[in-house]
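We store amino acids, tokens; thus:
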Amino acid sequence: MLQRLLVSYTSADPRVIVGPAVGEDAAIIDMGARYLIAKSDPITFATDAIGHYAVVVNANDIATRGGQPKWFLATLLLPEQTTSVRLVESIFAQIAQACKSFGIALVGGHTEVTYGLDRPILAGHMLGEVDPDALVTTGGAQIGDVLLLTKGICLEGASIIAREREQELKRLGVPEAVIQRARNFLFEPGISVVRDAQIAIGAGRLHAMHDPTEGGLAMAIHELATAARVGVVIQRNHLAILEEAAVLCEVYGLDPLGTIASGALLIATPPEDAMRIQQALRTNQIQCAAIGRIVPPSEGIFLHDGKELRPLPQYVRDEITRIFPP
């Protein structure tokens, strides 16, 4: 449906280098000597640390374009019955701290108390810049590329579960240490991929980068394949599923492959550059594994489980929505 809507209701502009398309992380607009990168993304699952989430997930999609996040705008919608001065101040402080840590300026937005909400919702809008020669897109993946994945999955999902369901997890017998480590995934290893992308850019040729979010790694791979019009074969035993994430997903019967996954970065690179990029990331204490390869579109999108190829699942709903009330 989204693909049909984007085709039917968007208009062309010669200065728009990359416009709206399934799988593409941000728009690219020609500003002359530099390209402007424009991105928007809301935070709807998490309520704890919502300001930090909003800045980071929007900065990620600037970085996957090969650019530098620069300017942030926030639209903050607050519930009528539970909003307090302390809540509003804490969200603004989170935004400010996250912006400061990435060298981003908070330049505007909108704040209101809104009818019908039971929790805060924060929609972020990030602008950045990239040199035209340094631009990377999701659709740039080429047949023969190696597909790399940093850190592991599902880092963001585990952090949200631990933060939003902490007391329930304790009652279910999940060890306190597991819960606290998962809570801290927000910051360590962190849901930001800005540093991952910058290190990779300096280490080798990148044909494509993509930031797995809703629908988890599986949907991110489908999005990359759609944008680049290629096929993909993934090796299941090469996927790093974080131990704490596996535990928390098992508690709620969630598939880590389809659970929201900010913090991991997909990179498509020529085979001769893959090892160099992996080594550069590992030298900077960022894990990176070769998880598959880009193949002709006629070969489809498959997961090899060690014995046979089977279609890589698609998740029309992110798995994490199953722990939230309808």
In short: The radius of gyration is 19 Å. The chain has a mean pLDDT of 95. DSSP finds ten helices and 13 strands in the chain. The CA atoms of residues 16 and 29 lie 5 Å apart.
